[in-house]
Amino acid sequence: MKKLHWILAVVLTAALFLADILVGSTSIPLSDVWKSLTGGDVSQQTRTIVLDIRLMKAVTALLAGIAVSVSGLMMQTLFRNPLAGPYVLGVSSGASLGAAVYVLGAASSAIIGESVFGSLGLAGAAWLGAAAVLILIAFVSRKIKDIMVILILGMMLGSGIDAVVQILQFLSDEMSLKSYVVWTMGSLGNVTDVQLCFLATAVVAGLALAVASIKPLNLLMLGENYAVTMGLDVRRSRNVIFLSTVLLSGTVTAFCGPLGFVGLAVPHITRFITRNADHRVLLPGTVLCGASLMLLCDMISKSSTLPVNAITSLLGIPVIIWVVIRNRKITI
Amino acid sequence: MTPALEIKDITLAYGRRTLLANVSVKFTPGRLTAILGRNGAGKSTLMRAISGLGKPAAGEISVGGRNVCTLDSGETARLVSFVGTEKVRIPNLRCEDLVALGRAPYTNWIGQTTAEDREIIHHSLRLTGMEDYADRTMDSMSDGECQRIMIARALAQDTPIMLLDEPTAFLDLPGKYATVSLLHSLAAESGKTVLFSTHDLDIALEESDDILLFDPPGVIFRTSAEMASCGDIGRVFGIDKFKKQ
Fold first, then answer.
1. pLDDT value at position B68?
2. What is the rounded distance in angstroms from the CA atom of residue B113 to the CA atom of residue B39?
3. φ, ψ for residue A82 (rounded to 5)?
4. Domain architecture of chain A: domains with CATH
């Protein structure tokens, strides 16, 4: 990738960001959107729609796209498996369990109302669930050397938790079941400004850890044995990568629901575009590509009024099928 | 003077099975040593211990007087480089970039290579005869070519000790000879201690300087010429051709 390509990619992402603010159920002319953003003279209602609803949603989409894509890239490299994604370690299952316990269990006890505290509670519970799974995985990985065993344990743990969530769903009443199902469909629009601060902080911290893991990730491409003989402290790098993943995909899943397939598909799209395997190129590429794709999904979701999770899956699945067919002979 | 590799009184175990007991060997820098032995005799376990991937049950492995068993992976990586049996084929990864990963123990936090690093990388590619492959990616190369790139990566690591676990396993006969004679010249010219395990007895006897023969629970360490005539290989492997006449 030349410098010009990077500039083009940044411009494209910025353009999609602006386009995402333009698209919505009420049509607002570009000039009014621009005035709202720059503090010009527009009606209070327009300003509210642009700043409080659309801008918030666009920023959430941007952060969510970056977060799940970067954690997907790290998981694919760490597990040397092209079909690994941000959720292979059971992070989304953990978040689902947290959300399910909260919505299906606690919500019925009427302690939680419609307050800000209440909505932070759902995300908080989901985040705790994701973190709990990751602590468990990190603990297991201290005892187990073989990364493939950890992959299998993560997937088994995820399936087990999903079963518990199903039981909770089965036992719950109609109302709580619906609010849980709506959470699983994913939404970028339910994030309050307080939550957005949490989300942004977690994503920035997770990204910083990901950037610090660039060299370890490049060494881990050759497998853990080679990485050790080239001087890498594999356990430490593994834990940094796990922590980064819970900060990135755990937090996004908690606030926006499980965003299927973006984290799995984006690293492959980035590899295809950049024709490179170096994480010094792949990481920034994945950031831009993930942000763009999620903004695009959000626009489609808004214009079709369908849940964003359905859109990300429908767009992501063809990419994954293409990867499987193309990579029949080789693994990453 | 290049630091020498010495194993002192080591005991190796795999699970609960003892492979080697109280073995001591001193290797001479600048010589190529072939490690021979039956399957499961502990050749790989010994190599893993020397390269810091595993620890011996007892004893000491010293490189230039420093005990590898007590060093962290970063320090060991400057003393011992390793080429394993795992096949590495990473799409889109240029050979030059893969060899550059060998500089990891010396580069900064993001793995940036300096002019000196790049000189070493190109030198490594030249020594292994792979300079024309710098821009190729490994998914379009033969097993022998990939093996040479992995050897170039180990060379770029610039260590006094180089270990290779069955580097000839997937190669055809000319490929086997070419690889072992490359290792021989690398040892002779750079003064490195090069150890490789193999099941190709003929090639090992012809091309290497010394032979480390696993005769559990001990080892026999001799020059190739002595080993060829003493009949121990024939006894350990049960092959008449190598038995004493």
1. 92
2. 40
3. -70, -15
4. 3-326 (1.10.3470.10)
Contact A232 B104 (CB under 8 A): yes
Q: Check pLDDT > 80 for residue B43.
A: yes
Give CA–CA dist B185/A279, Å, rounded.
35
B92, B93, B111 ranked by CB distance to A215: nearest = B111
Tens of pLDDT, residue by residue over B183-216, are 999 999 999 999 999 999 999 999 999 999 999 8
Residues 6+ apart with CB under 8 A from A54: A20, A21, A24
Whether the CB of B71 is below 8 Å from some CB of chain A: the reply is no
Pairwise CB contact (< 8 Å): B74 & A221: no
Scanning chain B, the segments in alpha helix (DSSP H) are 43-50, 73-76, 95-101, 115-127, 143-156, 173-190, 201-207, 224-230, 232-237
DSSP string, B14-45: ETTEEEEEEEEEEPPTT-EEEEE--TTSSHHH
Residues 137-176 of B with CB under 8 A from A: 139, 157
Nearest Cα of chain A lies from the Cα of B99 at a distance, in angstroms, of 11
Cα separations (Å) of B164 from A260, B88, B169, B189? 43, 14, 11, 18
Per-residue pLDDT of B214-224, as tens digits, reads 998 899 999 99
Q: How far apart are CA A293 and CA A291, in angstroms?
A: 6
Tell me how far apart the alpha carbons of residues B46 and B20 are, in angstroms, rounded to a whole number. Answer: 9
CB contact under 8 A, B52 and A229: yes
d(CA B93, CA A168): 47
Low-confidence residues in chain A, pLDDT < 70: 1, 105-120, 327-332
Interface predicted TM-score of the whole assembly (ipTM), two decimals: 0.94
- Is B86's CB within 8 Å of A327's CB? no
- What are φ and ψ of residue A171, in 5° steps? -85, -10
Q: Tell me how far CA of residue B45 lies from CA of A55, A254, A286, B18, B42, in angstroms.
A: 59, 45, 39, 11, 5
DSSP-derived 3-state class of residue A84 = coil
> How far is A214 from chain B, CA to nearest CA, in Å?
6
Question: Cβ distance B243 to B232 under 8 Å?
Answer: no
Task: Please state, in angstroms and rounded to a whole number, the distance separating the CA atoms of residues B154 and A226.
Answer: 10
- Give the mutation candidate from A230, A268, A273, A332 for the B interface (greatest B CB count, under 10 A): A230
- C-alpha span between A139 and B105 (Å, rounded): 28
Contact A231 B80 (CB under 8 A): no
Tokens of A64: 């969510």
Query: What is the C-alpha to C-alpha distance for residues A274 and A236, in angstroms, rounded to an integer?
Result: 29
The tokens describing A62, both together, are: 């941007």
Half-sphere exposure for B138 (CA within 13 Å, toward CB): 24
Integer Cα distance of A208 and A196 in angstroms: 18
Token representation of residue B163: 């270990």
Interface A-B: count of C-beta contacts within 8 A: 82
Q: Do A230 and B104 touch (CB under 8 A)?
A: yes
Give me the amino acid identity at B94.
R
